[in-house]
Specification:
Length: 163
Amino acid sequence: MATTETDSARELGERFRRWLRERHLPVTRQRDLVANAVFAGGRHRSVDAIQQVLRDQGHKVGLATIYRALDVLVDSGLVRQHDFGEGFKRWEVRRQGAQHGHLICARCNGVTEFSTERFERILPLVADEHGFLAERHRVEVHGLCRACRDAEVGVLARAGRRS
């Protein structure tokens, strides 16, 4: 992990502990471990992925504990929960600044974030055109990622050679 990512994860961990103390909530080792797995890792982690990261680090934390810690992280405003229609939820760090959307692959379940200035400019225009006062938005595009499309083309090409 790059130093800036490490620094960012460390800063987020401290913000989370400060938020807990301000609300007189326990600052526990398990909450710290789960928070660090979300803050320091890749984006959009599932509970199973978080538990695997913790196992790989030599920690044994139960699913119920992970879910409870994630609920507290969401309450803190530092983490956002997503349901991409896969049958499970994912969590990511809530970042300051530009909004982003998600490209979700229906085959491999990969999630790619995207953000574009044009996109950010058009949303208020669309809302205004319909007399709508937008408060927030969420954009998800479901389809096939490049790797899955390329793999499909490769399979079809090999099948064509055999016929």
